[in-house]
Amino acid sequence: MATIERALRIEPRNALLLYKLASLRLQQGQPDLAENLAKKSELLAEGNANLKKQNWLLIAAAREQMGDHAGAKEARKKASRF
Question: Which pTM was predicted?
Fold first, then answer.
């Protein structure tokens, strides 16, 4: 975690690092923070359809953890476009 955060201070617009941090936050039970990080990563992941898809799947999982089943379904739908 600390290594990823340090790397993000050096390279704050790195979509892959943001995704990895979002994934860790989800595992730590912080779905709201995970969703926000994944959204930022998705925006920065231009030209990387696989990373965009992974971000939307992570957003779906975060929304499921928060009890937002409709939002999770919407995120999975967006993921299926990639």
Answer: 0.95
